Each structure stands twice: as structure tokens, then as C-alpha cells.
Amino acid sequence: MSDQKKISYASVAISSAAASCSETHNAILHVPAGDGPFPLLVYLHGGFWKPEWTREATGSAAFLATFTSPPAEVAAASPLGPVATLSVEYARVAQDDPANSEGGGGFPGTQLDVLAAVNEVASLHRAGGEDGTAGAAAARLDLGSVFLAGHSAGGQMALWLGLLSALPAQVRRAAIGEVVGRSDGGPALAEVVAAGVDPAISVAGVLAIAPVCDLVSAAQEGLSDFHDAVPNLLWRFGHTAKEPAAPGAGLQHEAAAAACPVSLLRRLPPLAAAPRVLLVHGDRDTDVPPSQSLAFAAAAWGAPGDHATSLLLARESDHLEPVGILVTDDGSPRVARYRRLQAAMRHFVAAGVAARCHGMPPPEEAEARLSPLCCTSLEEARGFCAAATPHACAAATVAAIEAAAAGGADDGAAETLAALNRPADMARGLLRWFSWVGREPGMAVAAWVSQHMS
Asked: Which ranges form a coiled coil (predicted)?
């Protein structure tokens, strides 16, 4: 029989308020029946690091079925042997008052949670145990064939962890450790970063779905519904609990680079190789634009090192479709698109497993199934992104408020304002975004914010 175990991991204590919490510091390990060893796919759900978006609320189990129990037509189109999965819950960030986030949420705590969860599996694997225990289940894993997968904010963390595993210790310390060591966690966090991923674990690939790859540009654009998700993630380095920081204050911009997959990719030494990466993004994603994936692909393809990065840009797909959220088996085009994406993601994992099993590059058969689905050039990818549906950003909200104040709001601006069903949250978010970009709001926006601040 297969084993499914809920395991706990110890959070890195950033403060007395950041003690491990059973609701946030746990993961569900599923290991197929049989002796193994089985490759492991680690899944990190999305939700812009917000508390309401939990593992259950984001449909993590349904997505993981792509690898454990896919529809018959997907399994037939994309052969893949049994795969174990680890669905990780992690501390997230209270939006109104980030400093009161439960379980130490926010960078670096949130990202180090994911590191701790993966390393806990390695510890269980070494310890083993009697039948029926988590140790016995973990002992049947192939830790040399670990895949990291994540959606949206989870994609950021999957890429971050994958790059952490590839960076030499001295670069980890310089690129990440020196920054996080100046947070309230102190030098101890720098040592956690320098230690990195357990040496028993080898990251065979990263599957990043609609990922936030470039935190620097995501903060600058004001991605997320209230435009402040990245500043909130980085609250330890800048703004205080309920008031934004003065423009340029703190270390937020340095922290953004330390948490940013694109920035870390550029820190890899010339002869170092990043893990294999598959980026999946839809052209109707209005939450995280496909330009985020393009930024990572462009950096990988232009780097001196050997970075095997593939970019799959899915036409007609929005932010949720690539992980099956709101996809029902009704025979609609949406279902057909998702089935194709499921097969592509299985091709990617199958190629990595084949490379591990045979000790050589993935066989042509596995690559041949995936390659035709992916972009072949930067020019093709840039054209796709240029034609994508406009995404939500702070500039669009600001423009809508200003147009409404001037009495000239068009249909698009009116629609933007009509969607603001939580104006107090938007007012807070706009203040934090203006703080990040070092600007003062104009008169119309300042008046709107003042009117709606709670």
C-alpha cells in the first residue's frame, strides 16, 4: 500500500513570536506502494504569500494528481513511473500587519521554511523506522532525484531553493546570507543559508508555474491585488507594522535581490549549472504576467553557464489554469488545454528521472515530447508577452483613480475601480507601493487614499 504521512518540521526561530506552528510548519508526504526508491516531487502552493491561501485553498492535492493519478489520456500521452510527492505548508505574511505574521512569515522565514521541510525529508530518510512511520516511508525515496515545483509565489520559492542548491557556499553567504543576517534573526540565519540544502539531496529539476521570478520588477510594478505583496514579504527589511517606510529606507531592495530567482541566477559562477528548469506561463495571466518567466529564461539563455531552461507559453491560459484550479472535467477547451499542460509537465519530470536512472543526458524520446511545446527563441517569447492580456499593476489602479477624479474614466478605468471591493486594503497597498518606488502620490490619489484608509 502507498503511505501518506503528515510530517512536521522545525521553523528557523526568527523571534520569540516565530516559534514553529503546527498549522504552518508541516508537509504531506505521499510515497507510492512498492520498494522504490521513488523520485520525489516537492510542491509549493501559491497565493502571494498571504495567509488565506493555504495548501487546501489552492487545490494542491488536485494538482499533484497530475503525477500520482492522472487521467488516462494524460498518462498514455506522457509515460512516467511512480512518483512520491511532498506538499509543503509554510508561514505566510499577515497583510494588514506583517510584523504580526504567524509562525515567522516573511522573507527569509518563509523561504527557510521550505528549505527546512526539504531537509527534514533527508533526515527522515537517514533515520528510517518501523513500517508505518514517516521514516520508513522516506527511506523509500530517491533523494538523488528530487524535483521542486511551485505555482505563483510557490514558483518563486521553488526557483529560489533550486538555485540555493546550485550556488557554492561562499556565494550563498554573499548573495543571501549577508542580507538575511542583518534581519532580526541575526548571524544564525546566515549560517542556515550557507549550509543550504542537505547534501543527500540532488535537485533534478524545477517546475515553475506562473512564477514570480523577478521580485525586483514585481515590487516595482506593484503585482498582487493590492500591489504590496512583495514589500509585505520583505517587511523585516523596511516598512514597519502599519506604516510604510520612508522612501529608500531599510534594506528592502537588497532583500528583494536576495529573494529574487533572476538575481540569484546571475550570481552563479560561470562554470556552475542551475538545475533543469521548466517555466510554464499563460498569456491571459493578469496576476503574474508572462514577462516574469521571460525574465528568467532570458537570463538563463544569456548566461555563460549551462542552464537547461525551457519556456512553455500557453495560449488562452490564465493564472489558475496551469495548475488545474477551476478546471472541471466538462469537455471544454479549458480542460483540453490543461490536459496538454499536464502532459508537458510529466514529460519534464520523466526526462529528469531518465537522466538520473541512466546516468546520462535525458534520452531523445523524453526531450522530443517536450521541446515542440516550448519557445525556441527570445524573439518568439517576447512577441508572446507583448500580445498578452494586460495585467493588474499599481500604475493601472493609480491611473483609474486619477481618471475618475478628473471625470474622464473610460470603461477600463471604471471596471478597475468597480473591482475595488476592499478599498481600505487598496489604500494601504498603494501607500506601501509608493514608498517602495520612492514617489509621493498625486493629489487625486492622496485624497482617495485618505478617504478609504481605515
From this structure: none
